[in-house]
Each structure stands twice: as C-alpha cells, then as structure tokens.
Design goal:
It contains 11 helices and 8 strands. The chain is mainly alpha-helical.
Length: 328
C-alpha cells in the first residue's frame, strides 16, 4: 500500500491542503459518523477501511457491516451499515482519496495518546483533516465543541450547550429506543455490558412511553381474553354492565357494596362504611335524631318501657308465682 506521507506532495502541488469547505465537511462528517454509529470516540478513531465488511445473505442480497475493535470491555462487535451511516462513510472515503490524490485510502500513522505509543499503520478512515496523518482524540473533541458553540445552542437556563462526543451515543440510543428498536438490540449496537446502561443513556419521550404502554396492555388483554374481548359490547351487555355499576338504593341511603357481594352486616346499614346517605333523606335523619335525643332526656322507667304500657286490669303480683312454690 502507498503511504500517505508520500502522496501528500501530489495533492499539495495542485491545491491548498485544506480550505473552509474542507473544515465544514469534517465538522459534518465527524458529528454524523458518531450520531449514526453510536461509537465511542476511541472506536471511531480506530476505524479503517478494512473494517468495512461485505457479506451476502442466503437469498443473494448484499449487505455491509462495520467491524468495531475492542475498546472499553475488550470485546469486538459489528454494526449493520444503514443508509445514513453508509452515506457518511462513503463521503469520508471520497474526501480522503481526493486529499491524497489516490484511488484508495492510503496507510498512515496514528498516535495512541492514552497509551503513549503509536498505533499500527493502517488506512484509517478519519485522516487528512488538515494534514495526512490521523487526528488525535482531542482534535475531534475540539471540533465537535466548536460546532455546538458556533451554532449558538443554549441550555434551558441560558448557558451555552457544549456538545461532547459521548452525547452522540446518547442521541443514537434515544433515537433507536423511540423508533421501537428492542432494548437488547440497542445494547448490542452500543457494546454495553447490561441493559441498565442502555436505559441510562436513552431518553424515552413521554408520547412514546404512553403509546408503548397502551400497546403492551392491549397485547396482555388480548392474550388473556382473546379476540372476543376487544369487540364492542351489545346494547344488552352494556345495559347489564351499567346496572351492575349502579349503587343499590336502600331508601335513606345508597349502598356502595358491589352488586352481588355478601353483606357482612346483614343489611343493618346503621354505621356501615358502605352506606352513603342520600340528601333527600335529611328530614328522616332529623326525625330519628330527635327521637333518640328525646329518649335520652326523658326519665328512665324500667317498669313501663316506652310505647308498651300494661293493660288497666294487669296485676303484677297475681301474674307471678309465690316464692315458695315452683313455677309451672
């Protein structure tokens, strides 16, 4: 493979190494690559053209995968290349080849700032931004930060919104979650160790939450009651349902006990928690209260209970047997 250092002279002889258009292109390309792929900044920086894999399905259709090298969890993964990700990768490859004036992406050096050692020379995807070699991680962070500052983005409190490369992973997770991608699929795409991390990253919109909840509950209802449970009720069924929901009229009050349920007080409603007094029965309650107050204020007569006076010819001594004779 041709080295990028030897090809730069051909490009520099024809035009300037970079222009304002080049800067604008890389601002778009870096941001779009991170948003469309959900890669960590270290993973995106390590991408090479050799990581673009071409595969054929059993039915003959061609599809492309992006191989992501191990980073955080020392575990590699592959991403399907969709239309958005495929477009930005294609534009990056076209720009790098035009920068070097070659028909392919040349091999270049790459410095690993974290490990303080050079990476193996390879045809890195992100290279030739302002010089032939691949940029460092801090360069990518600075460019993305400059994009957000230049756009004038603000937070709710009015402070500047500084975009970080890791925010693009959160956008990727949120967009997939709100577009009904299963959570375990998002976990595999992001390379997370658990589903809990996915839910920390992703933000579920309220409208999507309500819609998905309704779909889940409808599915559970359908699985329990079958298709017949979702049909509209007939007039007779609705009338029977409405009658069962009505409270029973007990004269002075309404009974809130569900229809058909056993009454533990034997229909003795006084003091029952299910009894709901009716406003129209207020005079009856007032008369009952007056009668009770009169009974408490009148002298107590144990011999003659109220409303049960003995007959005039009633003799209490004659009706009782003598003490020395047993009662028959």
């Amino acid at each position: 493979m041709e080295r990028c250092n030897s090809s730069r002279g051909k490009f520099a002889a024809s035009s300037k190494p970079w222009t304002q258009e080049t800067d604008s292109f890389w601002d778009w390309a870096l941001l779009e690559l991170l948003v469309q792929s959900g890669l960590r900044i270290e993973e995106a920086s390590d991408l090479t053209t050799l990581d673009i894999l071409k595969r054929k399905m059993p039915d003959g259709r061609i599809y492309y995968l992006l191989h992501v090298k191990p980073s955080k969890f020392d575990r590699a993964r592959v991403l399907p290349i969709g239309d958005g990700l495929g477009r930005v990768i294609t534009e990056i490859v076209r720009h790098v080849k035009r920068f070097h004036g070659t028909s392919h992406v040349p091999v270049c050096n790459h410095w690993n700032l974290a490990q303080k050692m050079p990476r193996p020379p390879a045809p890195y995807l992100i290279e030739a931004i302002r010089h032939p070699s691949a940029p460092g991680l801090q360069t990518i962070r600075t460019r993305i930060k400059a994009v957000s500052v230049g756009a004038g983005a603000r937070r709710a409190d009015g402070s500047p919104l500084i975009l970080l490369p890791h925010d693009c992973r959160r956008v990727f997770a949120s967009e997939h979650l709100n577009n009904k991608t299963p959570v375990h699929v998002i976990q595999a795409l992001l390379g997370h160790a658990s589903l809990d991390t996915v839910m920390i990253y992703a933000k579920l919109y309220p409208s999507q939450l309500i819609e998905e909840y309704r779909k889940t509950m409808r599915g559970l209802y359908n699985a329990h009651y079958g298709e017949a449970g979702l049909k509209n009720p007939t007039a007779d069924e609705w009338a029977a349902f409405a009658a069962s929901c009505n409270l029973r009229d007990m004269g002075t009050h309404l009974c809130a006990l569900p229809t058909g349920e056993h009454c533990p007080k034997g229909l003795l409603c006084l003091g029952c928690t299910h009894a709901q007094p009716k406003k129209s029965a207020v005079p009856v309650f007032r008369h009952m209260l007056a009668s009770i107050n009169a009974a408490f204020t009148s002298p107590e007569d144990t011999t003659n209970p109220p409303d049960r006076s003995p007959p005039a010819n009633w003799n209490s001594s004659a009706s009782r047997p003598p003490c020395n004779e047993p009662a028959n």
